[in-house]
Design goal:
Blueprint (H helix, E strand, L loop, with lengths): L6 H10 L4 E3 L1 H8 L7 E4 L13 E6 L4 E6 L2 E7 L1 E4 L10 E4 L3 H7 L8 E3 L5 E2 L4 H7 L1 E2 L4 H7 L2 H13 L2 E2 L1 H9 L9 H12 L2 H4 L4 H11 L27 H11 L5 H6 L4 H8 L6 H12 L8 H13 L10 H10 L4 H13 L13 H12 L12 H7 L4 H16 L6 H14 L4
Parallel strand pairs: 2-5, 10-11
Antiparallel strand pairs: 1-2, 1-8, 3-4, 4-5, 6-7, 8-9
Helix pairs in contact: 6-8, 6-10, 10-11, 11-17, 14-15, 16-18
């Protein structure tokens, strides 16, 4: 099979003085017709020993591993020398010993999966496949050449196994799956940031190569391989938490995974977390009443700095979606109250409605087509048409105006909030003449200024 080799890589290889190979995902994807991905390079020499053409720049990314970034002709290529690695017990991501080698075969054996261990000579196009990766691509099987060593040496490869299988649609080799299950606890030694990054890729696995429902399968694989307790411990055992069959076809865990399946990419993390308070409530009270409240607390804890270390703004947004995903569930919230809710949460209304819809679909009782228009969205759109003020700055009166009247200290904010609420309920009141008159009337009647 002909592999596309960028012209820049050909020129690098022609000048290098030693064979340079394409390896990893770019080769796997070419043989598997999966689409383009970054081009990774490797060879028997360290990057600084290569005879590179004029204009090529080398930046060492990791001196210990020999990883370098080669920039040439507008492209950036990660380069690694052939190497052997030794890891401490426990599956830590960083090797305790690294030795460089000139053996392509030895380098292939230390890589994670056979499909990522195929080498294409950048000068000649010759393919070297020392561990049978091409046959595994043809069978669409994800296999490790030495599975016990693979997962014992690097626990992050457990999540990579689930993620790559989901993204590509490949099955997992039986021996590889058994070794992964046996080594699941090695995820304990992986940092929260690395686990977070793999989880994010799983949540968006269907977008990588267009494999339908790949994100759902990736989460299911995490569960089957026993990885869930080391990523989302509060959901561990949620498959044994039943739900009222009148409203739900599935237990809490399966319902959660199906909510992610039905959710658009922007709310999949919130979908994964939305019912994380249910197992807690079930253990304490035997029911799920108010599960969104502990769910918000647990979400902040799991996604925050103690565990997965998401950015603060992500944690806040997801926690808010979890806290409010049951809002107006019965559809009987007073319009005035609902208006204030929409104003307060205006920037996340679309995501909240999308989460609520996915939650309904995941009950297994309704389809997307069965769900009617959202009352929240209908009212939001009506408010936009009415010209409702969504912030205090949208009012036709300012803090300086009420201060000039004689309001002081906290009273300034109190009168503006009062006026704001009235204008949200009735946007026609948002005219300067009425606002000034109302504020003056309140001031005249109040002993507090």
């Amino acid at each position: 099979m002909d592999i596309f080799i960028p012209e820049a890589v050909k020129r690098l290889a022609a000048a290098a003085g030693t064979p340079i190979y394409l390896v990893g995902g770019c080769v796997r994807n070419a043989f598997g017709n999966l689409g383009d991905t970054d081009v990774d390079l490797c060879g028997p020499l360290i990057a600084t020993a290569l005879n590179l053409p004029r204009g090529a720049r080398v930046k060492i990314v990791n001196y210990r591993l020999g990883t370098a970034l080669i920039s040439f002709m507008g492209g950036n290529y990660e380069y690694t020398p052939f190497r052997l690695e030794k890891y401490a017990e426990g599956g830590g991501h960083t090797p305790v010993e690294v030795k460089f080698t000139t053996s392509l075969e030895a380098d292939a054996m230390r890589r994670d999966f056979t499909v990522n261990s195929i080498y294409v000579n950048a000068s000649t196009g010759e393919v070297k496949d020392p561990v049978g990766g091409i046959a595994d691509i043809e069978r669409k099987v994800l296999r490790s050449y030495s599975p016990e060593r693979t997962f014992a040496s690097d626990g992050l490869r457990l999540l990579r196994l689930a993620r790559i299988a989901a993204e590509t649609g490949y099955k997992i080799d039986g021996a590889t799956a058994r070794a992964a299950i046996a080594a699941a606890e090695n995820l304990k030694d992986i940092s929260g940031e690395r686990k977070r990054d793999e989880l994010e890729k799983i949540l968006h696995a269907d977008q990588k190569y267009g494999v339908a429902d790949a994100h759902y399968r990736g989460l299911k694989l995490m569960c089957k391989l026993g990885l869930l307790p080391y990523i989302l411990e509060p959901l561990d055992g949620a498959d044994s938490v039943p739900q009222n069959p009148e409203y739900h076809e599935y237990d809490v865990l399966e319902h959660t995974l199906r909510t992610v399946k039905a959710a658009p990419p922007s709310v999949r993390l919130a979908a994964l977390m939305h019912d994380i308070g249910k197992p807690y409530c079930y253990r304490l009270y035997g029911n799920f009443h108010g599960h969104e409240t502990p769910g918000e607390v647990i979400t902040r804890d799991i996604l925050g700095q103690r565990y997965l270390r998401y950015p603060k703004e992500t944690v806040e947004r997801v926690a808010a979606l979890v806290a409010n995903h049951m809002y107006d569930a019965a559809g009987n919230t007073r319009e005035g109250k609902l208006r204030m809710f929409i104003v307060k949460h205006f920037d996340m209304i679309d995501d909240l409605v999308a989460l609520i819809k996915a939650d309904k679909i995941a009950t297994g009782k309704v389809s997307a087509e069965d769900i009617g228009p959202s009352r929240i969205l209908q009212l939001r759109d009506k408010m936009l048409d009415e010209g409702v003020p969504f912030t205090l700055s949208d009012l036709d009166i300012s803090g300086a105006d009420v201060t000039d009247m004689g309001y002081e200290g906290p009273a300034v904010g109190e009168i503006l909030e009062d006026i704001f609420g009235k204008c949200v309920a009735n946007p026609k009141l948002n005219n300067r003449e009425w606002l000034m008159a109302y504020a003056q009337k309140r001031l005249d009647k109040s002993p507090r200024k």
